[in-house]
Amino acid sequence: MNYVPGDLRDQLAHVGYDVVQAGLVCGSGGNLSARIPDEDAIWVTASGSWLDRLSRNTFTSVQISDGAPTMIGTIPPPQIEPTSELALHLALYRARPDVNAVVHLHPQTALLLDALGEHIRISTTDHAFYLRRVATVPFRMPGTTELASLTAAMAADGTDCLVLSQHGCVVVGDSVELAHKRARNLEEAASLTYRALAAGRLENLRDCPEEFLDRLHGSTAVTV
Ligand SMILES: [Zn+2]
């Protein structure tokens, strides 16, 4: 409703600034993209971009089908290299026609839990609503087509939130705003899980009430 209006690059720049401020990523770790309406193309961050210093000219446009630079309208693609995780973004857009935004970050608490062999618990209605479920992708080398194809295969069933083991997370959404909310809620759920673990009370952490989950998975509209 009051999210950043207008150009998708402005929305992604807002995500980048916010996630760095929130500690979900350190400077230039992670990368962002959005599907351009009515085009077989995405805006994607340039290689090495600092996420809290993004502007329209720090994005480049590439085709989803083959990753080649492409013109948007009369605007030629900037002469900059896309992120080294471009294959990951492209594989997700190909596997999920419903996805219009991909956010890849390196959030510390989610990664700490993964390194400790713990999964992120979903305890609150917010976390259940935004995350639904969280899958863990076994480690593959960053930037490889192997990581891209395995992640896309695991997201193909509609899973929107994935932890890339010992590397980061990737969240998708039908809008930049929804992917942004999911990224924030994923790390918040990880933080809640970690605090229960640190307090020695993880086994006491209750799951989100069944009543809410049933409504969420049913046809009735649910709000949080
Ligand atoms: Zn990464």
Automatic annotation (TrEMBL):
<dbReference type="InterPro" id="IPR050197">
    <property type="entry name" value="Aldolase_class_II_sugar_metab"/>
</dbReference>
<dbReference type="Pfam" id="PF00596">
    <property type="entry name" value="Aldolase_II"/>
</dbReference>
<dbReference type="GO" id="GO:0019323">
    <property type="term" value="P:pentose catabolic process"/>
</dbReference>
<dbReference type="GO" id="GO:0016832">
    <property type="term" value="F:aldehyde-lyase activity"/>
</dbReference>
<keyword id="KW-0479">Metal-binding</keyword>
<keyword id="KW-0456">Lyase</keyword>
<dbReference type="InterPro" id="IPR001303">
    <property type="entry name" value="Aldolase_II/adducin_N"/>
</dbReference>
<protein>
    <submittedName>
        <fullName>L-fuculose-phosphate aldolase</fullName>
    </submittedName>
</protein>
<dbReference type="InterPro" id="IPR036409">
    <property type="entry name" value="Aldolase_II/adducin_N_sf"/>
</dbReference>
<dbReference type="GO" id="GO:0046872">
    <property type="term" value="F:metal ion binding"/>
</dbReference>
<dbReference type="GO" id="GO:0005829">
    <property type="term" value="C:cytosol"/>
</dbReference>
<feature type="domain" description="Class II aldolase/adducin N-terminal">
    <location>
        <begin position="10"/>
        <end position="194"/>
    </location>
</feature>
